[in-house]
Amino acid sequence: MNTPTASKPKALIVIPSAAVLPLTEPAGHPGVSTGFYLVEMAQVLKEFGDEYEFTFATPGGIVPQLEINGLGLPMHAGAKSGAAMVSATAAQAFRFDVDTFRAKRPELVSRRDSELALAHHYLGRLPVSESLPNSDKEVVVLRDDLIKSMQDLPEHTYLSIEQLVHRHRDPEDTFDLGAFDFVHMPGGHAPMVDFVDNPWLGELLHTLRENQVLISLICHAPIAMASAKYRVDPHGAVVTDPEHAFKGARVTTVAKSAELFVLSSGYLKIPGKKVRMGYFIDEALKDAGYHVQTTANPAAVKIVWEEGVRLLTSNGPHAIDEHTARLRTLLARR
To answer: What are the UniProt keywords, alphabetically (predicted)?
Structure first.
């Protein structure tokens, strides 16, 4: 567990840790293996790692699971990920040789290697999600090598969100949520499970807002804002406030159209079956009272900054470079 020191500015990283994504279709399906997207966090670690002290937490304080499908090489192409995805899909359609595939994409391989090195340094040994029937062929090969590369790393410990709040409230504990400059939360499908309907997450978000901490969410992570209707009082009682301070804020997230593509043609596709999750994040955020802004083209970068509540959101791994640059600019204004 990394905890802040007095010598550096501080940042909080809250990683979703759900390992299974429930499905409503096919009926009776046990759910698919899932996790968090490293690419949606690694650029933040790279940009701020030399100057910031990071504290890592997960909703329940358990070790998060790395989503193997988030490590596909096109995911590391930034704003060019749409074109990279088309190229990769075509290259894997017939005869596939992993060494040739990687050799033609050296910059993407290099970026992924550097991001995995950051994960090894900051997060230690992690469980890795299972390959799925429609997983990218290259990441299926990567998975075994990745697990081997982490087997001798230490397993780190993580604070839970409830612990963050309790320690902040404890007058005898020097831990202070207001000491963080920002919190960043990456996506993957895991937030759909443990960032939603989470009272302690709601309390954390409000405490950060009240202390002027910048809140940074990407891709699926903005579903956390659906938990902002909750507060937890000092006695542990959950209070629901439909007219909370975040309500009506402008946000962006992964669009329904992008999710439908992943369900019908991407890694969540189950051959011969219609696949559906319990909800779509953009619709859930609209239902929760937010002004959701998405793009007609799912591959287009969208970033939204809501000054009044210091909330920065963006719509997917293709946005991470611009998201991180915007985060840097906003922090420089403080």
So the answer is: Glutamine amidotransferase, Lyase, Stress response
The identity of residue 42, as a single letter, is A
Question: CATH number, domain at 250?
Answer: 3.40.50.880
Q: 20-61: per-residue pLDDT in tens?
A: 999 999 999 999 999 999 999 999 999 999 999 999 999 999
Q: How many CB atoms lie within 10 A of CB 217?
A: 28
**How much is the pLDDT for 157?**
96
Cα separation, 44 vs 28, in Å, equals: 38
| Tens-digit pLDDT profile for residues 187-216 | 999 999 999 999 999 999 999 999 999 999
User: Is the residue at 57 inside a domain?
Assistant: yes
Question: Phi-psi category of 58—alpha, beta or left, where left has phi over 0 and alpha has psi -120 to 50?
Answer: beta
Domain range holding 42? 10-332
CA atoms of 44 and 59, how far apart (whole Å):
20
- What pLDDT, in 10s, does the model give residues 260-300? 999 999 999 999 999 999 999 999 999 999 999 999 998 99
Coil, helix or strand for 97? coil
Let me know: does 147 contact 139? Beta carbons within 8 Å.
Answer: no
pLDDT for the residue numbered 7? 82
How many domains does the structure of the chain reveal? 1
Residue given tokens 């749409």 in the structure block: 82
Tell whether 2 is covered by a domain. no
Count helices and strands in the chain by DSSP H and E runs: 11, 13
- Asked if residue 1 belongs to a domain, the reply is no
Residue 138, C-beta contacts closer than 8 angstroms, at least 6 positions apart: 72, 73, 88, 92, 98, 101, 102
Specify if 3 maps to a domain: no
Give yes or no for residue 134 having a pLDDT over 90: yes
Instruction: Indicate yes or no: pTM above 0.90.
Output: yes
Mean pLDDT in residue range 255-260 = 95
Burial string for 76-101 (b: 16+ CB within 10 Å, else e) reads bbbeebeebbebbeebeeeeeeeeeb
Average pLDDT value for residue range 127-133:
97
Q: CB-based contacts of 204: which residues, under 8 Å, 6+ apart?
A: 14, 161, 164, 165, 177
